[in-house]
Amino acid sequence: MKYDVVVVGAGPAGSTAAKHLAEKGIKVLLLDKSKFPRAKPCGGGLPMHVWKRFPYVKDMIESYSYGAYSFSPSLKYRVVFKKDEPIVGMVLREKFDSRLVKLAIDNGANFIDGKTVEDIKISKDEAKLVLDDKQELNAELVIAADGVWSTIANKVGLIPREGRRIGFCMFQEYDVGEEIIDRFFGNDKTCSIHLKFQDMMGYGWLFPKKQHLNIGVGKISSDDEMSKSKINLSHVYKEYIKNLKKVKMIPDDLKVGRCKGGALHISPLKKTYSNRVLICGDAAGFINPLSGEGIYYAMSSGKIAAGIIIESLEKGDTSETFLSSYQTKWMNDFGKDIYEFLGLSGYKGNVEYLVKLASKHDKIADILLGILHGGLSVRDCKLELMIRFLIADFKDRFACSITS
Question: pTM higher than 0.85, yes or no?
Fold first, then answer.
């Protein structure tokens, strides 16, 4: 079975790549280890820049949030984000991913689910994939979009042996009905983020959707930190639910039930290409380490990879040297912002105080919202944000000295 391209992993990265390849008449196979439809560990929030870059996803969005709260660790302070236009689009990942796969199929991609890739062999003439049933697939090129524990990236030697920063989350999506959503969240469907809940290096989230509540907690760690960590994520999640009930943000009778978990790379791989192979989405570590959002980077990397591969096939050059331009393109497109976020994620200062300052200054809140929903580049407004925080800090300290 010979294809021009085999895309391994049918999440947003893989499906987007397959769609764009198939549109150009490329013989492409989209392959996934799970049977579809399948659930995916995710909050299901799409920032505004997702549907601006990929307008067709607007038909897949179930509801919109027009506001958000960001709470300090003590819950004493909160930053209020409110807009007349949507700031987050909410999806159910099971439905969203299935519709992206269907879009790829409708454009001419082949799709096989329930098949796991166990090995990849790169030769002078082709890439050969070996499946769990010992079936072999041959292709000119392979796109690896097979998630955080990517078999492809590991087999071609692109996964570091140690020092990885991994994010772990635990969440549940509760079908509570539209009446409950309307009663607790109103027309704005305001979502909430609780920073460093229970002193965890991460946050808790509460995302209302059309008739579902997505509630989760996530933490950021390195391999070494994970081995030393004493934080029990299951315990933190239960405490988070208790806290949300205590402050009347969710119904008292909501039962925790069986939660789902997931993991994500918190920083990009140093190298995302090899002979005949490109790495996309979660497999490449494309995620915002502050918000945990990765769908925008997944779909963007899939589209960029498809463009590079189309050029590769046209020129008959599948070498590592030619494919290296993929790294340059994603870096210039969104990678520099990811690295800016990565630097900020290592902040170990007083988050409580920063939230306090932001809660009192609307312009700071506006800039932060613009960065998080994708309307502003963190690189372009980092300096202004730092200056405004410094001014706010001076005013706060000056006011405190007067009152004391």
Answer: yes
